[in-house]
Design goal:
The structure is a single chain. This protein has one domain (about 5-65): Dodecin subunit-like (2-Layer Sandwich), CATH 3.30.1660. About 20% of the residues lie in helices and about 55% in strands. It has one helix at about 20-30, and strands at about 5-15, 35-50, 55-65. A three-stranded antiparallel sheet has the order 1-3-2. It is elongated, with a radius of gyration of 15 Å. The two termini are about 20 Å apart.
Length: about 70
Amino acid sequence: MAGSVYRVTEVIGVSDESWEAAARNAVEAAGSSIRDLRVAEVLREDVTIENGKITGYRVRLGISFKYESGD
């Protein structure tokens, strides 16, 4: 019976509009260089603040993808 192994790496997405857009940016950027993305888990959300106002959103994601051993 064949099994699968997945690797998890952390990425941070940034947006000036929302956490959802920040997550989308992170997944799209990771997808341009990592094949076979499977799941993204939100690990942390935060905002940047300037002069008392939110100016940016950041999302840290744990993104999993299928591990290929190269055999």
